[in-house]
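Fold it.
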Amino acid sequence: MNVIRGLLGIIFLFLIAFLFSNNKKRIRYQTVILGFLLQFLFCLFSLEMAGET
């Protein structure tokens, strides 16, 4: 349930950013997806490192 809540929170933040954007046509979705994936990988790495101590 916590994972679903976290994903819904991220989607909600993306939706708010999209709605308040002045120029929606200039949004680079590749950059947004890459940033999300990097954040996700950093989270997994951090959790993995914290589990080893």
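DSSP finds two helices and no strands in the chain.
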